[in-house]
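Appendix C reproduces, verbatim, an entry submitted by the partner laboratory led by Prof. M.T., so that reviewers can inspect both the input and the predicted structure.
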Amino acid sequence: MTTVTFNHVSKKFEQAVGADTRSVTAVDDVFLKITSGDVLAILGPSGCGKSTLLRLAAGLLRPDSGQVLYDEQNLEDIPLRERGIGMVFQDGALIPHWETRKSVGFFLALRKREAEVPERLKQISRITGIGLDDLLQRKPLQLSGGEQQRIGIARALARDMRVLLFDEPFANLDAKYRTEARVELKRLLNAFPVTSIYVTHDQVEAIALSHKIAVMREGRLEQVGTFQHLYDNPQNLFVATFVGTPTMNLFKGKVEGGQWQGENFGGFPIRKDFPDGTAVTAGVRPQHIHLAEDGVYGVVEQVMPYFAERFQLVTVHLAGERWELTAPLEQPVERGSTIRCAFDPAHIHYFDSKTGIRIG
């Protein structure tokens, strides 16, 4: 297995704007180390640079500055046949006129090791609980999207690998098959531990498959950690609102006498070194706001039941502010009614309103 390091890597592209071109920074001075055998999920909105970072890790793109290192060796100095990189793409990327068996065994066939393919496939079939024999006799156009991805993953694993890269492999699958595919892939990653980078915009996928998550925005790395760490200790407003479902509520406010005071509620203690009038945004997750007899008033705007999770998401508004809270499914909450909400002071996050950086 291999440790992958992005050593202050940057990458720009030229983009046409009418008759002119402009330089767009896709990856901006990223430093990131992925420990041997770990699975790292790269999470972020569309256009944040996560797929570009993956292609830099694969050697498909060269950085404009910085280095991609495999075990402290510059990737560009490693011969192609010795890099040991497996990739799984959104669409499977199978050769359309080949039987999939030939695609799966292509790497080993080039090295005159075709005899090893059946045993590799037998292992994969046993671990996933899915027989691959029938799929291997077909061509890609005869396979469903989920079947193509299974073959793509089998192809990546049926070779000698140092690093395994995934570019939103399940993005085109419906919800049922995505869930099944995650379970199968988790089993395979447990059975064939290999340093892996998994690009996705799906938080459920990132949580299910990875050891750590790297959150990106506009080419920059915002924060890296386990999902629980990112959820409980976001470094800034972007991470706070991007990680976690339902989304964190935000309330504008300011410091008054060593306390945070908002439009509709306040009086919570905050760091003493902030002068009165300092603009501070408070963030509270819906799970930490509850119905109470003596809390803040709010008018119920919407009630959304989550039956599997056994709660209802209640949207309320008051004096120009809107927020969400969770309530037990069994507790009656009606649209248009007035309720009272209690905010848990131990779970309120504070952020500098100007910089977005969290206030400790």
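The mean pLDDT is 88. Additional entries are available on request from the coordinating office.
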